[in-house]
Amino acid sequence: MEQLNFETMQKMQQDLQEKYNNKWGGLPPEQARQKLLWMYGEMGEVGDIMKKCGDEKILSDSTVRSHFIEEMCDVLMYFNDVLLCYGVKPEELEKAYFEKHKRNMNRW
Hints:
Helix content is about 80%, strand content about 0%. By secondary structure, the protein is mostly helical. The chain has a single domain (about 5-105), classed as Helix Hairpins. Helix 1 packs across helix 4. The N and C termini lie far apart (about 40 Å). The relative contact order is 0.15.
């Protein structure tokens, strides 16, 4: 099974965006705000599941858990679209993520 990392996710999103370029408008920088707004909408759907079903069902009910994970995937897809709109490479994100983690680990 292929490893899922930012490089793989971005490639998958590029393929998806190319397939639906005429409907979705591609990934130019001016599309980033729209992608971010769609991501907020998906985050709201995640929040709805949390609110309506609760933590216990997300942890123990396979149907609820599957729905929760699917919506989290939608969030990640739009997140990657925003990165792609601005040409952020996986290496850049990974480097910044590690640096931010290190700062956070030493923050307090």
